[in-house]
Specification:
Number of helices: 3
Distance between the termini: 43 Å
Strand order of the largest sheet: 1-7-6-5-4-3-2
Shape: globular
Number of strands: 7
Radius of gyration: 14 Å
Helix content: 25-40%
Strand content: 35-45%
Order of helices and strands: EHHEEEEEEH
Oligomer: single chain
Length: 138
């Protein structure tokens, strides 16, 4: 059975060095890593190297739900690309490309089987949109 690949993208009006730092530094990840304002990331760790692990704890602000999101890096090319395998064995790749109007981020990931593809795409896109907003305003 072939896996469904979901692609999301955004152009962040900022310098590549800032985009990379905000994407990979836990102090920033906890500020933007949520799909809606009623959720937040309470903790984040990031060992940014091949074989290194990253994790973040995402929780509903009312305390009703929460989960750990983690994986292991397969590839890290500073300011260019990150690839990793999630805890459920799904593959994710993220590219960072400098453009005239900022940095284009393209994220491609294997869909999971529990939620509709459109819902997964929308959720990941909302997180990417939060990243864009946070990076451009800080």
């Amino acid at each position: 059975m072939s896996k469904t690949i979901i692609t999301i993208k955004a152009i962040v009006n900022s310098q590549i060095s800032k985009v990379w730092d905000f994407w990979t530094s836990p102090v920033h990840i906890i500020k933007w890593n949520h799909a809606s304002d009623d959720w937040h990331t309470t903790t984040a760790t990031n060992d940014l190297k091949v074989g290194g692990k990253f994790s973040s704890r995402m929780e509903a602000k009312d305390g009703s739900l929460g989960f750990d999101f983690w994986g292991v890096y397969d590839e890290v090319v500073t300011n260019k690309k990150i690839a990793y395998t999630l805890s459920d064995e799904r593959k994710v790749g993220v590219t960072f490309t400098e453009k005239d109007n900022g940095v284009e981020i393209i994220s491609m990931f294997e869909a999971e089987n529990e939620n509709p593809v459109e819902m997964q795409k929308e959720g990941w896109q909302m997180i990417l949109n939060n990243f864009k907003k946070y990076t451009e305003t800080n």
